[in-house]
Amino acid sequence: MSSSSSDDDSPAAVEPTPAEETAVEKEPSLAEETAVEETAATTEETVPAIAAAAAPVIKTSSRASGSGPVVRFDISQSSSSTTIAQTAIESLKSILPNNIPSSLPSAPNPALTLLHDLETTAQITALLRRPSSGAGDDNLCRWLYDTFQSNNPDLKLVVLRFLPVLLGAYLSRVVSRRKSLAGFEAVLLSLYAHETNRRASQPLAVNIPDLTHPSIYHESKSPLKNNATALNLAVISPSLEPHGMVRSTKRARIVGVALELYYTKIDKIPETSKIEFCEFCRMWAGGGDDENGGFKKEEAAEAEEAEEEGIGRIPLPWEILQPVLRVLGHCLLGSNLITKCKKNESTPLFDAAIAAIRSLYLRSMHDINPKAILATGSLVRLGNMAMESADEIDYTEIPFQTVINL
Amino acid sequence: MTSTVDEDDREPAMESGESDEGKVVREVCANGVCIKTTEVEAKLDEGNIQEAESSLREGLSLNFEEARALLGKLEYQRGNVEGALRVFDGIDLQAAIQRLQPCVTEKTPPKKGRARSESQHAVSQHAANLVLEAIYLKVKSLQKLGRVTEAADECTSVLDAVEKIFHQGIPDGQVDSRLQDTVSQAVELLPELWKQAGCFQEAISAYRRALLSQWNLNNETCARIQKGFAVFLLYSGVEAGPPSLAVQLEGSYVPKNNLEEAILLLMVLVKKCYLGKIKWDPSVMEHLIFALSLCSQTSVLAKQLEEVMPGVYHRVDRWKSLSLCYFAAGQNKVALNLLRKSLHKHEQPDDVAALLLAAKICSEDPYLAAEGVGYAQRAMNNSIENEEHLRGVGLRLLGLCLGKQAKMASSDFERSRLQSEALKSLEAASGLESNNLDLMLELGVQYSEYRNLNAALQYAKKFIDETGGSVLKGWQLLALVLSAQKRFSEAEVVTDAAMDETTKWEQGPLLRLKAKLKVSQSLHMDAIETYRYLLALVQAQKKSFGPLRIVPQVEDDKVNEFEVWNGLANLYSSLSHWKDAEICLGKARELKEFSPEVLHTEGLMCEGREKIQEALAAYINALLLEPSYVPCKVLIGALWSKAGPDALPIARSLLSDALRLDPTNRKAWFYLGVIHRDEGRMADAIDCFQAAAMLEESDPIESFSSIL
């Protein structure tokens, strides 16, 4: 493996050429990416392709479950997506100020390794938080854009992982300062377009159940009697129209849809990204997470902290607030369902989420927004219950007996 | 005899069990014989499973499997899960399951030979329980060792076996309670195991299997599983997809996504609580509140809250939650009535949140504004200590309510007092909440309504800046303020800029503004062109307006077709294009047969063609339809003012009445001036003309209040 990684380093010297091309214009680089997807055999790519061919061997052996032909098919698939990931990482090298771990490109699944690599993601986060980031010629934004265009789902996750910090920078800057944020907007638009495609522009709707009708989980005494009563149809996200640019009255919608996409992948997003998201939500709400009235006092401290980056209270229309609440609900009550930690353990994510929800609750009180008061209020109470509840009884444990009867 | 010993043993054992298990006296009992386990345990500790097994077989006259099962259970209870696993590995559980099946197939016709096969039941169920419990303990051991995937596979085999043994589900009351316990525990454990293994789709199938097959679970177990699944669906972020076709019965509701399934399960749970089948669990309701308010279905939520049994929530809490639901659902009156109850002096009259909510509802209705002022003041007085941060909100609502109250004021003096108080409150609020953008817009509108156009302009600009131009209302206000300052071309630039920031579907209100701006600049042909464009948009919207279409940002400000036709009719009649005007008016009338607006336009057309009697008839009809329709009042007053000295008092009272309703109506001031002049009261006439002139200089093309 080490030999292949050293092989990888040599093309790195050659690699910057396409990466710099990326910096000059977006379109050609896009075409390049697709070309890579299709053939994966252009002259510059040969060496990484070899490295990639070496990597999946290890991968398949570790799996060792499927039958022969399926695994082969798997190789051809993963080799191309591994190559794409390696290309992406190579071009990232030229953007980041510090080196990235040399083991990264040679990992069995470079995209997933990048996703969970704290050091590299911290570098990217720092770049995104710079006051000058997000312009049309921002290389990192281009990288995010191009990376999201690849058809490697894990690479898409890498881009989504940075959505909180990108929004943190974008939403607060777009209101106060009239600076070009075309780089951020290009990334957001590509997320929006992806979601539009995925949903075929269709709205997300929910048929609210009515217990007078029987359902798979319950019986009703008056079945089919009043079949005519229409179910309540709730549109939770209206149909998606195509957007080629961010019009300011549509910004909330585009951001909201990007967050909806983030939510659909939330079980695969690393915790650090979610914690960042919670912290931004707290600042967007206008600070103040202390339910016992610290709103004003907190605000001063908050303001200082936020001042550096200019992140503060922003308009939170329902289009944004609704997906935000879904994500926060997951951070508060869902992430411990999917990460094997114990239920009552207070994790950093739980703490960040409850702080964010408390400040959003106060914010909705200030806005006197009844729907938001209901939603955030219920989450606050659920969070408190989760903190207070003593060790739950494990009903799946057999009772202790001193006399065992057969 | 033995039972008393049991009881005595159990109590201390339960307590000391955790601290030092080694000293616990244990017994194993079978076939009427009990033996102490110390000897067996010693053998187990030496790793001699076979000897331990044989001593059990001899001592209790058991067969191999029974002895192993007992040993495994003993090891498990001693906390030696690895040992338990070694013991269980010695039994061929799959073979044991196989052996169980034939004896149970006899059971399939249960009605015929129940009595005959009763004893056989007992035996086979006993054997089944032995095997299944053994596998279950193996599962638990594996789980404790962190081998969750294996555990899940084994657990699945328990459930498979149960399904094979009982083809048609577990019959109620015919199953040994220990067997039932094992089955219930396995059913409940399986989804947890898959979750721990990170296999979420398997977890979802396990949940559904638990809930949709007949396991004869007791209510509490079933409720726990249902709640666990609902929570998983709501918060895990893992998309479950609809359940398989096999479970879908015709005519029954089948959830198609996570939210639907979670809401259904929570509603079922809430219903079970009312029926007394399970204990009330406050978290279930909170989850339901979260889910339904995410879907904006607060009226459904209100129904759920209303169904909660008395005694669960304090009545004031319930009223407050209900008022939030109804307010969010747009049923403001119901919400306000509930709040009035909760704010009654015998309930919780000082609750700041409720006071603010009530004030907010009142601030939207001029007839309730005075009541709202009271709530806002009470809210401010009570915003102390923990709730001090809400003072700014109270002030803001006070300002809004005063502003609304000013519209209903009976005298000029009263009105101007209320107006200045309203502005003072809003300014004070903005001192406390400088970053509240809604407040910024409200101040802008308030200032523009009082014709302080410079201040209004500042706020409108600031609002657009701070929102990044994302709110349509900000653009509209800026354009209106500019139009009131007679800076039409700038207003047009703003309108065009706003159109760049919106999509075609939402340009209706802006196009209407633009058409009116063109009229104001006497660019009639451009105006007609803009109206045409607007008409095309409105008709296209009408065609594609299903229930799922995009909800425009300002929903109530949708431009309707009627308004467009009427506007066009007005425009044509001002150009004396009577035929075109007639056509447009006809179209408008098709959409709305009786409307003061149409009669107003019709009257104008008659007047334009010198048919004074018909015009008067049209205006009077308009007033009959809508007694407070100011434009026609003014026009009748104007016509009477020209009808000779006898009619002047009538005209004057009509115009005064119009000015009471709309003090900024410059035409009313003008005609009132004319009357004063004709009657020889020159000073009054001058005052009126001056007012008219001043108002004309600050007249917007649409009413400012249309924005809020």
From TrEMBL, chain A:
Acidic residues bias locations: 1-10
Region feature (Disordered): 1-47
Compositionally biased region (Low complexity): 11-21, 31-47
Keyword Zinc: no
Cellular compartments annotated: Cell membrane; Cytoplasm, Cytosol
Pfam families, per database record: Hyccin
Domain of life: Eukaryota
Presence of keyword Metal-binding: no
Similarity section: Belongs to the Hyccin family.
Record-given protein name: Hyccin
Species per Swiss-Prot/TrEMBL record: Citrullus colocynthis (colocynth)
UniProtKB/TrEMBL annotation, chain B:
Keyword presence, Plastid: no
Record keywords, A-Z: TPR repeat
Region described as Disordered: 1-22
Superkingdom of origin organism: Eukaryota
Ranges of Acidic residues composition bias in the record: 1-10
TPR repeat ranges per the UniProt record: 666-699
Official protein name in the record: Uncharacterized protein
